[in-house]
Amino acid sequence: MTAVHSAVIADAVVLSRMDFADGALGAAGHEVTDSDVRELMRQVAAGVLTGDEAI
């Protein structure tokens, strides 16, 4: 188990991280609309998965 799995991250922080990712992607002209991919993004933002585990 990695350190990222042991942390409990508040919903507000997860939403903030998702908003940041959406903003960065939007600034680059991209948008993630697939619900499965957004769920993976949410799990990474929440510390449930690492970025490597998500892919």
Could you characterize the architecture of this molecule?
This protein has one domain (3-54). 67% of the residues lie in helices and 0% in strands. It is built from four helices and no strands. It has helices at 3-6, 11-27, 35-46, 51-54. The model has no long low-confidence stretch (mean pLDDT 89). This is Thymidine phosphorylase.
How do the SSEs run, as a string of H and E?
A: HHHH
Mean pLDDT: 89
Please report the number of helical segments: 4
Q: What is the distance, rounded to the nearest whole angstrom, between the alpha carbons of the first and last residues? A: 17 Å
What share of residues are in beta strands? Answer: under 5%
As a percent range, the share of helical residues equals 55-70%
Query: What's the gyration radius in Å?
Result: 12 Å
Number of β-strand runs:
0
Organism: Pseudoclavibacter albus
Protein name: Thymidine phosphorylase
Task: Show the helix and strand layout.
Blueprint: H1 3-6, H2 11-27, H3 35-46, H4 51-54
Helix pairs in contact: 2-3
Summarize the structure.
With 55 residues, the protein is mostly helical. It has helices at 3-6, 11-27, 35-46, 51-54.
Key traits:
55 residues, mainly alpha, 67% helix, Thymidine phosphorylase
